């Protein structure tokens, strides 16, 4: 019997792959020869379950019933099955042809594994009590039960599992012979109680691997209680929930792990036990109680003198007194104990054989089968079992139907009794009906496979019947029968009338489908004992125990070591015979890129000169020229997120992917095949190398010559030779990532040619020295961009007035807010930006960067985004941090910055604030010129995009006092409506007539105010875009409130200079 995944049945044989020598290959190859080191073993396992109902003193009874086997009462059905032949009588494991008996590590029938499942070990009557187990579990209860069990079992047994979920507790101890062979213990708790996941109901599941081969599963569960159909459905759903949610850690054998977690159903032997809470339905509880009490009081079978009613005490709880004692019971503590001496049956038999006058015994002298005795307890139990919900549901395939089995029930219902009594059923007000709530189910892998095969055959038969009926044939004919005979139609005689047959109760049939294996197929599990301990009275449940004998496969370590050594030697010989290999062929390279590949030198790809933002692509063809599959992957280079000063920090500029070598028919992009691909012999695919610099920080570093664009790609061929591909590119110097002080020292001809000349002079790249002469007061790139933006804006306004398909976007942030630029797609606009930067770096005319057919609207968006990118790339900014700190300190003397939410309406105040800011900027003349030049251009662009007509200006100047009042109202939180109201209130009653008449002759105040609001909104939004780009400050430090205040002041500075007088 094998387990799932890499563990399988030991009698099968796999083809070993000796083409690689990695640990997985060694494990698989040795596993293919597992029949040489796996031998049949035998173990006895005792499983016990008990709902202790949180009753005190139950832990003191644990040794009596679970280990010592006390508490049995044969008179009440607590006895060993009559068909128990003992483990010694079993056939050889699995019908194996190996001439060896199963290895018993624990000699003398000793219990090798004790597994105990307890329920309700804690008081869980309120949700708050079992909610605490989610956050603060209490280990004291587990410690109490562990101490009780360890005191009962032999001292050399070792703890295997100890897991608690609220009131559920699962304990497992292994004998010293078995414990070393146990591995991969994985335990999971599944809560199915309140809210569908709390632990007042649920299961504790554990999976162990025995002897590196056989998986054992133990599930201790407590399902929903209640007799109504609603609770029955809950029990069914909870059992299914446990199966669906229980997942165990992947099995690791010899350092090799399975890929997936295991689940219920992957094991070789499974045991599901606990308080399953299934009841007897369709029978009144009082009738069940009355019928069973006739037996427990001795009123039904008068032959049991010791159970007659006169032996019980009047007025006291009826306690059944059994004449038998525990000396005849199964004793697990002393496995070497020998049975009592009996008469020499062989001598009596020989004497009888010599006596010719001996008479045959009277048939009445033989004991009667309890099943055939209507007055026996077993006959009564057999009449109740057809009403057991669990057996009915198994038969209906609703729960526990996938091969699960249960031993014959020959004992009284286990629930519910009065605490302290042997057989007095619930006498409380609820008078709960007696039921077999506590059960122990089990199955083997073959049980489940047998069930799945039967389901498949039934489905195939159903489909065949439907197909035959669709063809007009009522019954599908048997392929082995040439013709059929129907007595009613083919015979001349009248048919014999049918007699209704008596449907006799069959316990095995009522228990479900395929509860016992076929006789021809040897069963690897034998139930030695299944009983309840009736005389344990400390709980309202009776404990139930089972003893199983398992024939299982396990590894013999000495044989496995020998096989592993042989496999390692064989792999070593075959290591070089089946190694995969590939050939790399150049396919396509970008402009300027070169490819070199020689037999002695590594492959080399040169992308040539790399321009900021431009993407370069090179394609390599990879062919598998070996005779075995080749698994390929590029080894990822570890990257760091921190760029330390002074260190040659690495940048991410190269990406790789695998695509199919065949071109797509519909010209769509090739599909990325992932980071790892497998090439079959003779197959090819393409490796695509993309080079691109998109980060401004990386551009600054490359301008300063810190890193180099050179990298060695490692193409990993699993189990084969790695290939090294050197990839390099040269950096094209750019204005992005420079400072104002650098750019003003660039002469005519552009920064690219100037930087190259400096590199040739110094033999290395670096920043432009500050000791070089200054050629202009501000960067030429800023002059050219602002001039082009202003000119193109006028062209866009003219096109919008003349062309129907040209409309200026109404978004106030356009064209400087990237989110508002929607006239073209991002890729197209990015290509325009790359062309503009190339023209700036080479000192070429900006209009030459566009094709003649490019609309002015598209040009303006590209120019505006290039300006934003340029300002973002300035390392010091237009207003450096030192200057901004001085402006920030002067905030109290600048009203516009003291209240950045709204600028003052007084033009004189605005002029004074502008003067104060410019005085501070005068200390850095070049930055001052850049600031004035930029803000002036932006103000003109805003005025062009949000114009005020002469009529609007006249109306606003005529109502200047009201405008000031309205602006103040808007600043106080009234919004534009309040501002309009302020304007109208300043006009007065006589002016209202002017507003009403303005619709025919002039421009109304409201329309003028709306036009002004559009301009103010655009000024504000443009200021938000450029505030952080122009003014550099310590925005990363301080609290979030301080950062927001700093951003508001930077925006206010820009808005102060974008605000134009109403002239």
Automatic annotation (TrEMBL):
This is Endonuclease/exonuclease/phosphatase. It comes from Corynascus novoguineensis. One of its GO terms (biological process) is phosphatidylinositol dephosphorylation. Residues 448-476 form a coiled coil. The lineage of its organism: Eukaryota, Fungi, Dikarya, Ascomycota, Pezizomycotina. One of its GO terms (molecular function) is endonuclease activity. The keyword RNA-binding does not apply. Residues 41-482 form the Inositol polyphosphate-related phosphatase domain. Residues 352-372, 479-491 have a biased composition (Acidic residues). It comes from the Eukaryota. Residues 81-93, 330-348 have a biased composition (Basic and acidic residues). Keywords: Coiled coil, Endonuclease, Hydrolase, Nuclease. The keyword Hydrolase applies. Pfam families: Exo_endo_phos2 (PF22669), OCRL-like_ASH (PF21310).
């Amino acid at each position: 019997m094998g387990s799932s995944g890499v563990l399988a049945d030991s009698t099968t044989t796999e083809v070993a792959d000796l083409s690689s020598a990695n640990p997985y290959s060694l494990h698989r190859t040795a596993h293919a020869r597992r029949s040489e080191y796996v031998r049949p073993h035998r173990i006895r396992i005792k499983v016990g379950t008990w709902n202790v109902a949180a009753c005190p003193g139950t832990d003191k009874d644990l040794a009596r019933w679970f280990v010592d086997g006390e508490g049995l009462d044969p008179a009440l059905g607590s006895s060993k099955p009559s068909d128990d032949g003992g483990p010694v009588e079993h056939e050889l494991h699995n019908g194996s042809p190996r001439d060896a008996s199963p290895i018993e590590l624990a000699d003398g029938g000793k219990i090798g594994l004790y597994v105990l499942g307890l329920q309700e070990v804690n008081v869980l009557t309120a949700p708050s009590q079992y909610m605490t187990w989610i956050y603060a579990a209490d280990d004291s209860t587990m410690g109490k039960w562990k101490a009780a069990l360890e005191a009962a079992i032999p001292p050399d047994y070792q703890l295997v599992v100890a897991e608690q979920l609220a009131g559920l507790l699962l304990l497992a101890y292994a004998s010293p012979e078995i414990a070393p062979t146990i591995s991969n213990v994985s335990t999971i708790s599944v809560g199915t109680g309140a809210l569908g996941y709390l632990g007042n109901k649920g299961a504790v599941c554990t999976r162990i691997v025995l002897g590196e081969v056989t998986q054992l599963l133990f599930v201790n569960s407590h399902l929903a209680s209640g007799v109504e159909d609603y609770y029955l459905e809950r029990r069914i759903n909870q059992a299914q929930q446990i199966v669906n949610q229980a997942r165990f850690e992947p099995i690791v054998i010899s350092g090799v792990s399975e890929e997936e977690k295991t689940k219920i159903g992957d094991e070789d032997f499974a045991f599901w036990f606990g308080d399953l809470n299934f009841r007897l339905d369709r029978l009144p509880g009082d009738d069940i109680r009355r019928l069973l009490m006739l037996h427990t009081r001795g009123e039904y079978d008068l032959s049991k003198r010791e159970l007659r009613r006169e032996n019980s005490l009047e007025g006291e709880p009826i306690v059944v007194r059994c004449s038998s004692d525990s000396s005849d019971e199964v004793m697990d503590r002393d496995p070497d104990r020998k049975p009592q001496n009996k008469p020499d049956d062989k001598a009596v038999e020989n004497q009888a054989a010599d006596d010719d006058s001996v008479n045959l015994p009277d048939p009445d002298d033989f004991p009667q089968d309890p099943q055939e005795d209507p007055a026996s307890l077993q006959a009564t139990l057999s009449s109740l079992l057809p009403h057991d919900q669990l057996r009915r549901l198994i038969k209906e395939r609703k729960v526990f139907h996938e091969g699960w089995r249960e031993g014959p029930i020959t004992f009284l219902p286990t629930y519910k009794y009065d605490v302290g009594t042997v057989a007095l059923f619930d006498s409380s007000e609820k008078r709960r009906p007696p039921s077999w709530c506590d059960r122990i189910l089990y199955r083997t892998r073959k049980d489940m496979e047998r069930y799945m095969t039967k389901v498949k055959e039934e489905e195939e038969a159903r489909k065949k019947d439907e197909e035959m009926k669709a063809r007009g044939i009522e019954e599908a004919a048997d392929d082995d029968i040439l013709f059929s005979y129907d007595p009613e139609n083919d015979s001349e005689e009248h048919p014999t009338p049918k007699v209704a047959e008596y449907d006799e109760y069959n316990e095995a049939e009522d228990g479900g489908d395929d509860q016992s294996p076929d006789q021809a197929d040897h069963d690897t599990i034998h139930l030695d004992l299944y009983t309840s301990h009736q005389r344990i009275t400390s709980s309202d449940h009776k404990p139930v125990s089972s003893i199983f004998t398992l024939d299982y496969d396990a590894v013999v370590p000495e044989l496995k070591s020998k096989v592993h050594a042989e496999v390692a030697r064989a792999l070593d010989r075959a290591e070089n015979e089946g190694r995969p290999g590939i050939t790399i062929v150049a396919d396509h390279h970008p402009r300027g890129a070169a490819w070199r590949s020689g037999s002695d030198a590594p492959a080399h790809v040169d992308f040539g000169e790399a321009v900021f933002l431009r993407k370069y692509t090179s394609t390599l063809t990879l062919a598998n020229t070996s005779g075995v599959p080749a698994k390929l992957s590029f080894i990822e280079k570890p990257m760091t997120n921190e760029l330390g000063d002074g260190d040659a920090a690495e940048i991410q500029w190269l990406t790789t992917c695998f695509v199919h070598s065949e071109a797509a028919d519909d010209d769509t992009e090739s599909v990325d095949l992932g980071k790892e691909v497998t090439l079959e012999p003779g197959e090819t695919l393409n490796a695509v190398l993309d080079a691109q610099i998109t980060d401004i920080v990386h551009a600054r570093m490359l301008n300063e010559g810190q890193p180099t664009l050179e990298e060695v790609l490692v193409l990993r061929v699993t189990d084969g030779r790695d290939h090294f591909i050197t990839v390099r590119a040269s950096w094209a110097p750019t204005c992005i990532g420079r400072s104002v002080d650098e750019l003003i020292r660039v002469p005519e001809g552009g920064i690219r040619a100037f930087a190259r000349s400096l590199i040739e002079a110094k033999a290395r790249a670096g920043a432009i020295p500050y000791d070089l002469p200054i050629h202009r007061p501000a960067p030429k790139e800023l002059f050219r961009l602002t001039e082009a933006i202003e000119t193109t804006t006028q062209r866009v306004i003219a096109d919008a007035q003349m062309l129907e398909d040209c409309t200026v976007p109404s978004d106030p942030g356009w064209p400087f807010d990237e989110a508002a630029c929607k006239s073209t797609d991002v890729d197209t606009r990015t290509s325009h930006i790359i062309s503009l930067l190339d023209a700036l770096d080479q000192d070429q005319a900006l209009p030459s960067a566009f094709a003649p057919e490019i609309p002015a609207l598209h040009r303006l968006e590209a120019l505006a985004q290039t300006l934003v990118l340029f300002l973002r790339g300035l390392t010091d900014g237009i207003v450096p941090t030192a200057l901004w700190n001085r402006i920030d300190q002067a905030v109290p003397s600048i009203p516009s910055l003291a209240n950045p939410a709204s600028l003052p309406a007084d033009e004189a105040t605005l002029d004074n604030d502008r003067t104060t800011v410019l005085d501070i900027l005068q200390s850095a003349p070049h930055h001052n010129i850049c600031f004035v030049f930029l803000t002036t251009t932006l103000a003109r662009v805003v005025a062009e995009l949000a114009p005020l007509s002469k009529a609007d200006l006249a109306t606003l100047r005529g109502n200047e006092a009201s405008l000031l009042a309205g602006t103040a109202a808007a600043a106080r939180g009234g919004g534009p409506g309040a501002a309009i109201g302020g304007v109208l209130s300043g006009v007065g009653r006589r002016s209202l007539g002017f507003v009403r008449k303005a619709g025919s002759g002039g421009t109304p105040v409201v329309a003028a105010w709306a036009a002004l609001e559009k301009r103010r909104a655009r000024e504000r939004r443009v200021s938000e875009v450029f505030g952080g780009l122009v003014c550099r400050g310590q925005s990363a430090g301080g609290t979030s409130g301080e950062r927001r205040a700093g951003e508001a002041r930077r925006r206010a500075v820009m808005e102060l200079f974008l605000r134009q007088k109403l002239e």
